[in-house]
Amino acid sequence: AGAATLYFPETWYPEETQWQLATEKDIPGIQGGLSGLTWNPDSGTLFAVTDHPSSVVELDTDGNVLRVIPSDGDHDFEAIEYLGRNRYVLSRERERMLTTHHIDRNTSVLPPASYTLTLDVDRKSDNAGFEGLARGRGENALMVAQEKKPLRFLETDHSHDSLSVSDSLTHRLSLPWFLKDISGLHYDRIN
């Protein structure tokens, strides 16, 4: 079993919080704002999600919208993570659900999920579900952040040989008392 380290620069390293946003950019045509962000090294583009209306948005590295891929309903998307081979995992906060979708350069409407994982535990709020996703330490690891009530990190496993996500979510970390909410997740695979 590996160890994970949580960094809270605003608590221990105040100089690291003294950054300024260099560029602010309006993204025309996007209603409700973007949530989640993932890099697809195969296409050289970014992907994000919107929750109302539910869609996947592809952007270039300057933040210009290349396309909007609408979904077939109101799914409260909060996060997206690229798994490779045109496969993406999307989190649906309100539904406590992870879904795997195949999205390629010809996709114009979000296809049905090739796999769905629902974790319906500790439901204390409709607005406190899966808020962040990140590829984890191992090749097949996917970290999932539950926003709050209870706030926690979970881990699931996926295989490059199939378009699926296993249903073996487990608790991985003890979280510090001062952490009140998780709104996103990134795993540094380099350090």
From TrEMBL:
GO terms for cellular component: plasma membrane. It is a single-pass membrane protein. Its main location: membrane. The keyword Membrane applies. It comes from the Bacteria. It is found in: Cell membrane. This is Uncharacterized protein. Keywords: Cell membrane, Membrane. The keyword Lipoprotein does not apply. InterPro entries: YjiK/CarP.
